[in-house]
Write a structure and sequence with these properties.
The protein is of the alpha+beta class and 559 residues long. The chain is 34% helix and 21% strand. Bound molecules: adenosine-5'-diphosphate (ADP) and magnesium ion.
């Protein structure tokens, strides 16, 4: 029997996986159960398109069994199983997801809800087990095979015996060490808790044998113990549950289970609407930017279910671009199951839902800004730029909606402030909302152009993001106050400063200015006496609408 080696990168990945990806060991069970559920879903999917297969939902299940004596934990499913090749390909290469390939090949159409797609979950088993054995019989095959591995050293595959189609995974649970207790993964009560916590909404029954103690018939004090098969999960999806039954942890678990992200969401939004259009939705505002967020690959969208059955993985029509960071799902009984993607786009109900959701997200963000400032700032660090793009894009169509959510660093407060806060602090005589652009707060602090405005006691908003000035140009005003760059020609406050000396300064220095202009002829348009400088000898200003910072960006743009 030949021991095959994991691919080199697999070895490294496996190590990383076992030691660092997951913070909680207990999630190995969630991973194996979600694979089992995927496998049953695949069978269900095949049955939909193949009349010779019947799918009787009731005869499909996942079973978790403990054999304490042999330190074995067994997870059995009645799913589609794996052939020899599949065992090799799907379990022999880490980060290769058979489920993702299945999804791509069978272009998601009808009801199934396949969770897997990253190809790493299975290996979580090695966090608790020394040996992992997989015995599987694939649909349509007479032969069963056994895959076995002790971790990074590789795996073996040999012919085996199995009566029915499906998969059996046997974990040889590690011995306790001084620091770590592994016995808990052989404890029925503990396992039940883990299943409840992470896999409660799995749509197939997860069964366990539990010992029931009962009074012996006819006896008052004699008990008998019986093994009884019990279904552990409620099979009710979380979005159908009452908000009052759910804890923040439930929502976080769902987020992790669904792989919406690897962070902990900043906020969840649970919507149940029973009006003109009926739907349930669970939405999340992530904390961290997904690694591909600002790339072409990133696909926005929410999972769309029709009456509990997944019909689309990423329904992009449900989210505007400026909220593309929102994750989650929508389930509506008012959507027909067989609508094609094209038809979906015109679905009136869907449009209503999208509008509704959009409003809700906006108001939740506003609440966050108002009531949970720190969280909002955390969120804004990650996704503020997207909101600013939102203000700028579509010719400013959404600016009214979004402007209240923007924040910028304030020269005076030394922290992020909203426009509302800025405006509420403006002295009566202040005409404009001032801003200054630069690479960093430090750099802007040192800009000579900020001197006069700061000295006046006015607050300046610092723009360090390329998009900032473009977004502000689109807004033009906030609550009737115009935005003004500190480097624009007219600051609206110079008039009362130094007014008298200017004329004489101009004549006195005429020759000097002419000389400077001559030297800088290709770099500046004019050299003038400035009324805005305090301690700096010189500064640059712009004439028209485009500021120096914008000019830099425009020049750097391709084409
Ligand atoms: P993912 O679920 O993200 O695809 P996993 O590492 O959890 O990645 O699993 C890898 C692959 O192994 C799955 O995509 C699937 O093809 C296969 N697999 C794992 N467990 C089972 C199972 N119980 N029944 C059938 N196939 C399975
Ligand atoms: Mg998986």
């Amino acid at each position: 029997m030949e021991t095959k080696q994991f691919k080199a990168e697999s070895k490294r990945l496996l190590d990383m996986m076992i030691n660092s990806i997951y913070t909680h060991r207990e999630i190995f069970l969630r991973e194996l159960i979600s694979n089992a559920s995927d496998a049953i879903d695949k069978l269900y999917y095949k049955a939909l398109s193949d009349d010779s297969l019947s799918f009787d939902k009731d005869s499909y299940y996942i079973k978790v069994e403990v054999d304490k004596e042999n330190r074995a934990l067994k997870i059995t499913d009645t799913g589609i199983g794996m052939s020899k090749d599949e065992l090799e390909n799907n379990l022999g290469t880490i980060a290769k997801s058979g489920s993702l390939a299945f999804k791509n090949e069978n272009e998601l159409k009808d009801g199934h809800e396949i969770i897997g797609q990253f190809g790493v979950g299975f290996y979580a088993a090695f966090m608790v087990a020394d040996v992992v054995t997989v015995i599987s019989k694939s649909l349509g095959s007479e032969d069963a095979y056994k895959w076995e591995s002790m971790g990074a050293d590789g795996y073996t595959i040999v012919p085996s015996e199995k009566d029915s189609v499906g998969t059996e995974i046997i974990l040889k649970i590690k011995e306790n060490t001084e620091e770590e207790n592994y016995d808990e993964y052989l404890d029925e009560y503990r396992l039940k808790g883990i299943i409840k916590k992470y896999s409660d909404f799995i749509r197939y029954p997860i069964k366990m044998d539990v010992i029931k103690r009962r009074l012996k018939e006819g006896s008052e004090n004699e008990y008998e113990e019986n093994q009884e098969e019990q279904i552990i999960n409620s099979m009710v999806p979380i979005w159908r549950k009452n908000k009052s039954e759910l804890t923040p942890e439930d929502y976080n678990n769902f987020y992790a289970e669904k792989r919406y992200g690897f962070d902990e969401p900043i906020k969840h939004i649970h919507i149940s609407v029973d009006g003109a259009v009926r739907y349930n939705a669970i939405l999340y505002i992530p904390e961290k930017i997904p690694f591909d967020y600002y790339s072409q690959e990133y696909e926005k969208g929410l999972e769309l279910y029709s009456n509990g059955v997944l019909i689309m993985n990423k329904c992009s029509d449900l989210l505007p671009d400026y909220f593309s960071f929102v994750k989650g799902m929508v389930d509506s009984e008012d959507l027909s199951l067989n609508i094609s993607r094209e038809m979906l786009q015109h679905d009136r109900q869907l449009k209503l839902i999208a509008k509704n959701i959009n409003k809700k997200i906006k108001s939740e963000l506003e609440n966050l800004l108002k009531n949970e400032r720190e969280k909002y700032e955390e969120f804004y660090k990650s996704f503020g730029r997207q909101l600013k793009y939102g203000v700028y894009s579509d010719y400013g169509m959404h600016k009214e909606e979004l402007q209240g959510l923007l924040m910028f660093y304030s020269s005076k407060e030394k922290k992020m402030v909203s426009f509302d806060e800025y405006v509420s602090r403006m002295p009566e005589e202040q005409k404009y909302i001032y801003y200054a652009s630069g690479e960093s707060y430090d750099r802007i602090d040192k800009l000579p152009q900020t001197e006069l405005v700061s000295e006046k006691g006015y607050e300046i908003l610092y723009f360090t993001d390329e998009i900032d000035e473009f977004a502000i140009r689109m807004l033009m005003t906030y609550k009737d106050k115009e935005f003004k760059s500190v480097s624009s020609g007219d600051l609206g406050i110079e008039a009362d400063e130094k007014q008298n000396d200017t004329a004489s300064e101009v004549t006195e220095n005429k020759d000097l200015f002419e000389y400077m202009k001559g030297i800088l002829s290709d770099k500046v348009k004019d050299v003038r006496v400035s009324k805005r400088l305090k301690s700096h000898p010189v500064c640059l200003t712009t004439d028209g609408e485009v500021t120096i910072e914008m000019e830099k960006i425009l020049k750097a743009m391709p084409g």
